[in-house]
Amino acid sequence: MTSPSPPSECDLLAAAPSWRELVAAWRSAAGPLQWGGFWGSAKALATAALARATGAPVLVVVADQAAMELALDDLAAFGVGAVPFPAREARLGAEAEVLRERHHALERGARAGFAGILVAPLAALVQPVPRRDDPDALLLLEQGMRLDPDDLLRRLVRAGFERLPAITGPGEMARRGDIVDFYAPALGEPLRLEFFDDELESLRVFDLATQRTRHVLRQVRVPLGGELPEAAGPDDPLPHEQLPPALRLVHWEPGRLAESAERLAGRGPEFAAALERYRAFAAARRDPGGVLLELATLPGRDGTLDVLSVEEYCRGVAEGAALLAARAADGEQVRLFCATEAERDRLEQILGERGLDAGLLHPRLGGLDRGFRIPEARLTVLHHRELVPGHSPHRPKPRHRRHPGAAVADVQSLRPGDLVVHAVHGLGRFRGIDAGENGASDVIVLEFAQGALLELPVSRVDLIERYIGAGGGAGAPPLDRLGSGSFLRRRQRVAAAVEDLAAELLEIQARRQASPGTPIPAAPEQADFDASFPWEDTPDQAQGTREIMADLGSPAPMDRLVCGDVGYGKTELAARAAFRVMAAGMQVAVLVPTTVLAEQHLRTFRERFADWPFEIAQLSRIVPPKQRRRVLAGLAEGRIDLVVGTHRLLSHDVRFARLGLVVIDEEQRFGVKAKTALQKKRATVDVLTLSATPIPRTLHMAMAGIRDITSLSTAPAGRLEVHTEIRYRDEDELVADALRRELDRGGQAFFVHNRVHDLEAVAERLRRLVPELRVVTGHGQMEPRELEKAMLAFVRGEADVLCSTTIVESGLDIPNANTIFIDDAQNYGLADLHQLRGRVGRAARRGYCYLLIPRGQPLPVDARRRLKAVEELRYLGAGFQIAMRDLEIRGAGNLLGPEQSGHIAAVGFETYRRLLAQAVARLKRQGKPAAADDRRQPAAPVADLALGVSAALPAAYVPGEEDRLRILRELDRVRSAGEVDSALAGLRDRYGPPPAETEALARLFFLKHRLGALGFESLQRVEDRLICAVRDMRRVERALAPQEVDFRVISARRAHWVLPDPESAPTEVLAHLFQVAAACRVRPAGRESRSSRRRR
Fold this sequence. Notes:
The protein is α/β, with parallel strands linked by helices.
């Protein structure tokens, strides 16, 4: 027999006499009502109960965007799927997702029979919405309809769309022949329209990153809605005017709403006028049950419900849950929310160990801002997180669908004028792509010394790479002279030096592998701990977890680099590794560069391990002497399981009973002495290094296979890129406007100024610009207690702006802070700017970064390039490109010491990296140095083809040199006939049917790789045959044996391939080769079948 379902929270509230009195008063009131006492998330329960009782739609108005996010989670906890109506942030950058949500909310709310709940910040209700009767505001598209493409483009231009060669984001459009792409911000997805004359033949949604179709539509309504003002004018429609008359209006926290209204009115007369229109609408509601209802935490004007906090349960998970269970056994109705199933399972396990029934707490999955008790209803509601002393505030999960951004130019993207390295001729300059002498086949034009030009067939794009090494400014290296052989000699010298370096590095690695280590056994509860992570793992995180667990289970000490962009989950991987080590009875040291970061990591790890019996402590200069002595004793005696600390952890008086793992956060920020001490530890204990922008040496070694690397490159769900702008530091209006907007959405801001002596003056300037701001200052020279006090005030939301030096750079995680100003941004390194920008945009809201520079002061070339790089590389996961761009700007620097720096400048970073990777692979495979000839051997041989066929990617088909070069590199990656078809289908999708010469080009790319892998060196059409130069005749004969071809061996390195038809046109020869090559089986180089070895 199943036990009866517990009563719902709405039922329990409805049974409380005080609540019934309040509802009766509301039903009969003729004017606005204000009720008080609604502590924590009780406002959401009250709203849900009212909506259920009336069956009418409800508009909940909150103070700001942050309050809206929390309200949505709270309502969802009580079974209500509310609809968000967010505020626009027009002057802070494009917000396609916001426009889509506003459009969706109005569409839902205006439907007949809608009885849901809309949640809006006050600012959203004073912003205008498109008129429903405006013919230009809505575009109806249907497959097969008649529509002139030129008329469509004119309509899009009127609506404010920008025409570009290819679209990369909202508000853009492009036309290529019969294909029109456009991205209406309020639709939330880019559309591709394909026309046949004036008939809309196809209507598709496509992916910005891949430019490939995601799905096909039959019809769609597209809200165009041109540029709207920030505040509604007298004739502009407001949101409430498009919602049904039966709407119930509920205001949460009238005190905070009044503050928001005051800030809005202060932004200008148009805001004040729009606000008055909304106030008049709210005050005019006089129908019984339809009047404005205000719910407040403080006692209310017209009634108060007795609601208490849940602080008494904040005693730790075990004790708090046990007290809850005891209350529940006495008749209290308890509802305990958990972030994950694993968290719920662990709670049940803890209560089971105490002989208590977890079912009494009715644990369920969900988010909740703050718990509450209603004694009259005998109801207690709280979140598992609130059982932990000093717990962090609730962080709403992102609700945005994340569409990948446009495909970004990779490290190898080229523009005319860029330096390149040719594999044979060396350093040249890319001049562009031309049609070639006869116009039949495209060529890449390169310039070398003395103005000499080289025309390279586009099918050999693999021979060139962008030069990254000594920078491209005044110190750029000289171009090589064609035919001089100087580059090959330089390359041979570098290869020899790289061989020595590789042997040295591998010897270090071998010593580590041979070190007597201790495998860390798998913890039985590891899966439970991993699953209790409240966010869904990205594929990279899941792979990283597997790699780290494999390392810990190996007898050799782990030395793994976890490289991931800011906020991509590196700390969680460190926590999982720490759990396994601590569960095995060993200790963990987490080494961080600053005391501020140590304080944050301490809170993070204590909260993450709250359900587990581990002792976690901190060791840094802000720890009082008495507590420091206790921590040192605890480490030596093994009572402390995990310690977070600065370089103080490397002092001689710090002794561990059984150290098993060292986690190093941002290793590049430690000094030489600290790094030397760390190097000694690497030989004996497991080391996990976390870095958002790896120092080039670390990155390089990882790429070359000398150090293990885990790369986190997938953005967490719902993450939005940070809007980045370069602005002048004297733009007071911009600074004030951005700060007020951040306040309007309930957020906080950083202002980074890296000079201590006038930091307070900068803070005073901010207070003058926005008098209502609460500003605190922080810098490394402050007394530790004062710094901690300022930082904690900011973390707890008691200050709006933290004006500080770069102490905020590393790892500080304050989800509510989403605007950052970086003063004198020209003085920072690229990695530093990327790290600072990473402090914002970590929650469900978009972050904004302003790089402030002095007006009228010429900036050095390198500084200009750094700032432009940060502004351009703002997409999610830009860390790798940032590291490579930094290498390019600074030159080779101290990548692998001054001697190797010269080698990198000589041949370019990519060539150097490949030589080192090849040397490492050879030494690992052979255990001995390679011969000189072996050093020159390419990693993957290709065949040169001269078939006389027209092969090109015409500019008329793909406009834009960068796009053409990117597609050429994509075609160069095809290795199978299926990939050729896929590549052509992608071109067909984006640009329309490819011309014959582009299809030929795709097949040539495939053939050069396939025939090279089969053992051919070159093939040239001469009359009725192909003259073949062969690298490995035995390999070629074996591959062609099953095919019906007339292949005649002339010598060990030469053969004739007689064509089936002597009169074959070049396209027919290409088709014949493609058919034969696609059917040939490629064996891995150096591998032969057993039968062939036996025949020998």
